[in-house]
Structure formats: structure tokens, C-alpha cells
Amino acid sequence: MPKKIPGKKSLKIFKEEQQVISPGFQGIALYSRIALSKGRNAILTDEDGNRYIDFVAGLGVGSVGHCHPHYVKSLQAQIERLTFSSFTTQVRKNFLKLLSTLLPKNLNRTQLFSSGAEAVEAAFRLAKSVTKKFEFVGFWGGFHGKTGGVLGLLGDDFKKDLGPFMPGLTLAPFAYCYRCPLSLKYPSCGIACADHLRKVIKIQTQQKIAGIIFEPIQGTAGNVVPPPEFLPAVQSIAKEFGALLISDEMQTGFGRTGKMWGFEADGLSPDILTVGKGIGGGFPLSGVVSSMEFCSAKPYSNPSGSSSSYGGNPLASAAGLATLEIILKENVVKNSEQLGKKMLARLKTFEDKFGFVGEVRGRGMMIGIELVKNKKTKEPLDKKVARMIFEQCLRRGLLTLAYSPNIRMIPPLTIQEKTAMHGIEIMEEVFSEIDRKGLYR
Asked: Which residues contact 165 (CB under 8 A, 6 or more apart)?
């Protein structure tokens, strides 16, 4: 039987915190009202002793799960030696050297930061330094942070009432084939959205494009996977206009898609990578990666020109190094690929089984489920029903991003098959109840 969630202890702590924390907290925390006490790999435990399978991984940051022994040991050792510094340290040098072995040969220099948005803004400064241009193009559905320099490229209505935005930012439709922004059908469309991008640049910009930024899979939009022709076409258009290609790997990097980097699946050669989330295994850590040639451009390369007070501090570097060591030693990328395929195949059966599942898509352990009222009209499922799915999953021991019609599944990459499949069984049980009662109509 589903449990009463939240329990008394969790609810007490939640309510007490609400007296001092600002509104606007993460939705999943507000909707669940649970207070967590501990975690091990892909299992979380709240203050009442309730256990949950974690299909959220801290919104993708928990690449190696909760409290991996090597991760804990590495941070404990570092915190006893040195906790902050902008100077060179052995641990940062070791981290950057190991990271360099995982990068394409032409991308051989990394600068470290703390947050994703901070890294993206730094990438923009780098692109401006290299090209001496000032405009950037992103895509509908994209998410590159909430800070002022990138907020204008947030590809949905979240940014309403938060303007004005930094000038020189332009959005174009992404290849979201299930809901084609041009009302066409793949593959007969001929990837018209790529041609549309070219028109957007020619008509809506000054054609002073410093960079085109994209996510190999759009995470916040619902783990939207573009068709294989789209991103290579974007790369070609970037070259056509003399713009740098920026692959935002915050969510897709470090094995999330079943390859070390999200851009690999499409055979791309980006000029800049922005990395974060899974790189630190839960510790705030991000970075900008490019070539020595580009990183030498001024003013980016001036002393303090690309630095950050917290970026690459000893604790962050220890977290990054431990995370990479775990990823490599435990073959985490392979687990993401192989187990991700099994999860996707199982979830794909939901499309035929349930009248409200419009599309299941994904790559590796980055899976999306789009819920609809009607499969023909594709009208999104009512958010109240989505919240019901979220709550019923939670009561059965599954924590997942199911409170909107676009469900995202991004578990720790170290999750075991038995745990992952049990999580899907819970979701199937909840979906069956929604379907049986006809609550989605």
C-alpha cells in the first residue's frame, strides 16, 4: 500500500524551513515536502525512514550516485588539508590532467567555475574574444542558466517579466519532431528547421554571430532528442557565418547519454564545451573547455580574465577528480549506455499500453516521457494529473520528475539494473491506475 508522504518528521522540518527560506524553491522539493537524511547510490532515505529510488540525481548532478565510498574518502582527505585557494594545487592539476584524457585532442584547455550559468557566460566571453563579434543564437526549449547574460536564451516562457535581456541574443526553433515548430513531419520535412535557422540569422540578427549554443539533447524541455541530421546542419551553418559552435554539455556530459559527451552521437566538432552537473558528482563545479589557440584570445586570456573565486578550489577539484576516477574505474559510461537501452525499451512499451503516453524518447540514462490527453491532438496532459502521478510514485517509493506532462528520467549513472527496473515497475503501476480510472481524459 502507498505510504503517507510526507511523514511527520519530514513535514515538521519542511514547515520550519519554510519560515526562513525564500519562495521560489525547486518545484520537486515544494511538491514532495520530504526532508532527506541520507543517500546511498540510487537510494534516498528521508527523516521518517522512507526509502526512494532516485530517478532525479539532483537534477542530473549525481553522476556517481549518493555517497560513493571513493568520493567520500577523497573529500574527507582534502578537507583536512586545504579547503580554499586560487593557487595551483596538486589535486587541481591531477583533475585537469585526467579530464584532458577524456576530451577531443583539439579541446585541450579547461577553466573551472562553480555553476552552469557562470560557465556559459564565460564561454560567451571566450567566443567574443576569439571572433570579435557579439551576437549569440540559441534554440526554443533550450536552457543555459538563469543569470542575466544568458536569460534571454532561455527557450520558454519562464523568462516572462524578467527583462530586458542582454542585447544580441536570438532564438530559433529546435528540431522537436514530436511537436514540430514548423508543423511539418520528419523525415519528409528535409530538416526545414535548419534552413529556418539560417533565415533567422540573416533576417533577425546583424550577422555578427560569435557563437551558436545548443544542447545535444534538450534536458529541461523534456529530454528532447533531435533527428541525426539536425545538429550537423547547425554546425555547418555556424561555419557559414563564422560563428563558434558551443556544445552545452551540462546535462549530456560525462556519460549521461551513453557516451562520454553528448555531441559524439552526432559526429560533431564543437569549438567550445560548457561542462558541469555530473562533473562534480554533486559538488558545485563547472567548466569551459576549448583549444589553446582560442583560450589565448584576449581579453579572455588576460590575468583574471577567465577566472572565478570558487572555480577549481581544492574541494571542488577533489570532487571532480574522484568523480572521474569512479566513472573510469567502474565503466559508468557503458552502464549508462547498456542499462539505458533496457530502460528505454521497457518504457517504449508504454506508448501502446497507455492512452495518455504520447512519446517515449531518450539516449543513455537521459529519458523523456511525454504525456498527452489525446494522441491525435497531442494536447498536453493536465498538470493536476501529472502531479497526481508524481505523488503516487513518491508514495510507492519512486522520486522522479513526473509533476509536469514532460517527465524526465535522469537517475545516477551508477544505478543497478534491479533498482532501475523496479522504479519503472512502480511507474507502470501508477500509469495503470491513471489509465484504468480514465483520469487523463
From this structure: 148, 151, 152, 159
